[in-house]
């Protein structure tokens, strides 16, 4: 993931570290290359401009150029700014209430249902909590069947919703059942559509009102680049998103969405989907990602 930008940034910084003395002109050349690398990775222009300006200001302001190892210090500045860009400090999962409700929203095909199951598995295995999966899409029986199948495959219970007519009824019932049976967390997979529409948003608002989720995640496909960022803006305009689950990072060689979603929408990436297998799912650590990019 993010191979291209990673390669280019590494090569610029390596060159800088090779220079014993760095002039302002050297720095500006390097920043020009960083700017091009980020733009080529499909990072939004205002984000790139701000990034480069901050690195330049820090490098000039901290007497980095006259220090003994200017290249190394600039590498550190780029690392810190990249971490900030990716959302700063990683946040652990917030689980409030009994059961703690987690709600997933997103467009069809982004990996929402797969991520619901992967997240439930993560909560079961890493946090040791009893978790119930809840299919709350009453329009597409296939979505419910898919979640049931994933539940069977991962050994996770899925709420039976046969006969329920509305998502609101499903989630009300889910909260009651979870409390009655001792499930500490419910992970709710909501309806998806091909495009953002009013009917969907109104439904999701009603579901969120009932659930009062302690985490409300938008699932977005990293491969769709700036579209993923636009989805975060659209969903974030109607729902109090607490994070983004960015899927298919394994296939995204460019990385524009990962690099700009947090700074444009102020909604941090919290989890990353890195493959099709149940375990291909991890907490998103901005600093580790920055280190990975810079090699
Ligand atoms: P939904 O319509 O949003 O519920 O999407 P699905 O959960 O059905 O996922 C759509 C496709 O994306 C499926 O083939 C998944 O296996 C695949 N998928 C989901 N997450 C990832 C991921 O992180 N990496 C890869 N490579 N594929 C993924």
Summarize the structure.
It catalyses: GTP + H2O = GDP + phosphate + H(+). With 295 residues, the chain is an alpha/beta fold.
Mean pLDDT: 94
Instruction: Give the tally of β-strands.
Output: 7
Q: Describe the oligomeric state of these chains in a short phrase.
A: single chain
Largest sheet: 7 strands, mixed
User: Order of SSEs, N→C?
Assistant: HHHHEHEHHEHEHEHEEH
* Low-pLDDT windows of residues: none
Morphology = elongated
Structural class: alpha/beta
What's the tally of helices?
11
Distance between the termini: 13 Å
The small-molecule ligands in this entry are:
guanosine-5'-diphosphate
Radius of gyration: 21 Å
Strand content: 5-15%
- The percentage helix is 40-55%
Order of the strands making up the biggest sheet? 2-3-1-4-5-6-7
Features:
seven-stranded mixed sheet, alpha/beta, binds guanosine-5'-diphosphate, 295 residues, 53% helix, single chain
Topology record:
Layout: H1 3-18, H2 24-40, H3 45-61, H4 70-85, E1 100-105, H5 112-127, E2 131-136, H6 141-154, H7 167-181, E3 185-190, H8 198-211, E4 215-221, H9 226-238, E5 243-247, H10 256-265, E6 269-273, E7 281-283, H11 286-294
Parallel strand pairs: 1-3, 1-4, 2-3, 4-5, 5-6
Antiparallel strand pairs: 6-7
Helix pairs in contact: 1-2, 1-4, 2-3, 3-4, 4-11, 5-6, 7-8, 9-10
Main location: cytoplasm
EC number: 3.6.5.4
Domain SRP54-type proteins GTP-binding: 268-281
